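Consider the following assembly input.
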Amino acid sequence: MSAKALDKTPFLMTAPGVIFFIMLLGVPMLMTFLLSLHSYDFTTGIQPDWTISNYIEVLGDPYFHKIFGRTFGLALLVTVICVLIGVPEAYVLAHLPNPWRSVFLLVVLGPLLISVVVRTLGWALFFGGKGVLTMIASGLGFGEEPVSLMFTFTGMTIALVHVLVPFMVISVWASLQKIDPQSEDAALTLGASKLTVLYRITLPQVMPGILSGSIIVFALTASAFATPAIIGGRRMKVVATAAYDEYLSTLNWPLGAAIAVILLVVNIVIIVSYNKLVERRFAKVFE
Amino acid sequence: MSFLTLESLNKEFGDFTAVRDMNLTIEQGEFISLLGPSGCGKTTTLQMIAGLLPPTRGKILLDGKDITKTPPNKRGLGIVFQSYALFPHMTATENVAFGLEMRGVAKVERMDRARVALDQVKLGQFAHRYPKEMSGGQRQRVALARALVIEPPVLLLDEPLSNLDAKLREEMRIELRLLQQDIGVTTILVTHDQEEALSMSDRIVVMKDGDMAQIAAPLDLYERPLNTFVSDFVGKTNLIKARAAAGSQGQSVVIVDGHADTLTQNLTLALPGEALIEGESVTLSIRPEKFLMSKEGPGHKVEVQASIFMGASWLYRVNSPMGELFVTQPNTGAAGYAKGDTAYLSWPDDAVMLFSEAA
Amino acid sequence: MRRLGPIALCFHALFVAFILAPLLMVVAVSFTDKGYLSLPTDGLSLRWFRAILDNPDFIDAFWVSVWLALVSATIAVIIAVPASLAIARKKFPGREVIAAFLLSPLMIPHLVLGVAFLQFYSKIGLGGSFYGLLAAHVILITPYALRLALASATGLPREAEDAALTLGASRFTVFRRITLPLILPGVAGGWLLSFITSFDELTMSVFVASPATQTLPVRMYHHITQTIDPLIASVSTVLIVLTFGVMLILDRFYGLDKIFVGKG
Ligand SMILES: Nc1ncnc2c1ncn2[C@@H]1O[C@H](COP(=O)(O)OP(=O)(O)OP(=O)(O)O)[C@@H](O)[C@H]1O
Ligand SMILES: [Mg+2]
């Protein structure tokens, strides 16, 4: 083999994307990071100094502790609920006879294409003071007092589960498709009960799907904006809505930038370490 | 008394009948093959025996007990699936030990027994590998060990060798047969490979479109097929259309109509057997290796059209008075016939099988 | 055959009800004949659909979103196709890094992208412009187009192209007659998914859009934070119906499950 001159074609082919991304993704992200290192004065605006005071403020202030705690608590809760209801649903979908399977796959996945604003609006209509919950409650004889889940943690949880559970279903569904149904038959003929088959054969094989679904749901909840903003409002701030307020109401951009950077770093750390973990655990077992 | 009995077993999917009126009695220790082309209902039959598919009608008896309604996990049969169906998240040992665990065998004992079973299929050193880390042949043997370790009364094998390459397949045929005879386990093998069925079985069930076409020992099946389907599916054969002529007692006479390109006059053959109804269409079947071919005769003059050397034998395609025929001759070390040669073809009377049906 | 038991089917029914409930709720409310939020208990009315026509800002926002999605999805595909072919087919130094870089927006919360663009555009004087919004959307959706294009480029049989070459086709002809038709389904699916993603995007756009360049989701969001009325329900209903159409197309030609596996 002779040493050939480096082939330039692949670089030319990726160049439009790479240049565009450097200019319009690399530069803005870098600028945001730099911005987070400036301090802010309410009368004179952004200062030219270099400081990590914004990070110290975010990481030290109980107000932000509460917001971060709420955000990750919410993400954890939503993920757990999505596992609890999304995994069985994926299993049911995979075992439905065919015309129904396609229909319900569409029903479950289709909402992913509908704007989050619309889907959240649906829950706002349920949760509002004059909403359906109140009607149901009074219909059942719980009195005329308005039942409202607006601006509550429960309301946010329900709406976010609704918005994100399709990701769990699709992820588990994809794993289920890869299972050889004969491996379940094999366990049956070896004397396992149906429950044992589910627990010992099916569940371990869809574990990678559950794990990757969880990470998607967790990351998307942790950075969700629309649903917490509409259902949670000012009273139930999460990281994304807090950063939004810093930028567009308080105008303390450097502090908002610090929140954004922390959110990004936490997000990436969780995704990457989780992927590493899953890879190590399953590399030998699955393709 | 038979060990495993299928009594008019039927399976219908909607208005499609996959298995029709299957009646079969199998003795303890017997090796039975279900042989037939793709889609003839072999897997369906096996799955009904395993309890994975409920029969539409009919009964399955094991050792005198009716097990038709017994769920698969209570039947205790050993099954090797076509795809092996190993548990990908368990090592070879864990796979093999699973059935023992389900039977409540203590951990130490089941690991020991799993190891013995793996040794039995010569996989001792692969005990801790995951299925993904093994070759097709190794996976196949894990599946076999997993089925055998529970000491099943009946072993069901669904095309267990079809995913292996040709050489390994032949080796495994012998190994599997020896192992089966060693253990003495009653075995049902599903296959569409006639060589596999012939070489391994005590008896073969030939299936066609959900029906049983014939049940016989390998040699009987080969030498005395009941119909053209079996004679064509099991081994190679030449099928020749003919019509019956008036014959005397103990003799049937058929006329093979002349083929425009090979023959100018009709050929009349007298064969042992019952006299036939004159004018009836019949089919003759002659296996390629039953012919005797010589340079000078006696016999019918033929012209060699193609000649292929197969190692142990020669395969010729010849133009004969009966049309185009395939002929196999053993390799004696001398050069064979070449394309364009003329030769003479003869055959013993009993080499011709006569079926009163048009092929 | 494994049949589902009654418990499984009940669970399934509840799950489907949970998925559909808020959407049906929106649709139901939009048909009310009252001037306030309520279910159409005494008769259906189209008055709130007519009301959309009297609110040109929703219609303007709709067209902004359509244009934005059309143009950004097209640019994303133009960037993604050559990149996917290079990444999937060629070995070159930095290949993995480039792939990771072009897919990286998938890992960045939209909020972070939003604040980054807000500051960047205000610095370079593009604040609130349509072009700024457009560039931001291209960054956001290129990974989706790239992923589907990569999937089809990876599955491309090398031999088919080699065969065409040996049959005397020029490199360009090979691309036009063999490569392009083979990756076209993936590219088309990627375009449609990019279109939808851009059309639905709120979090980033809320930072970048000005009143003149408000997209429909941004317009709707601002409306909802002020007041929730039957008008917003009727706008949403129109969106649900339109999306349903796109969904059927996507499913027909590509399979929804394949498009969404691993999204996010
Ligand atoms: N669940 C089912 N529903 C409808 N038809 C079925 C079903 N399972 C099998 N069949 C049909 O029953 C017939 C027999 O199938 P079976 O799997 O037993 O064939 P086979 O003899 O094992 O073939 P192969 O050699 O290809 O494995 C086929 O025509 C098949 O299409
Ligand atoms: Mg089969």
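Chain B is about 25% helix and 35% strand. Ask yourself how this observation constrains the way the partners meet.
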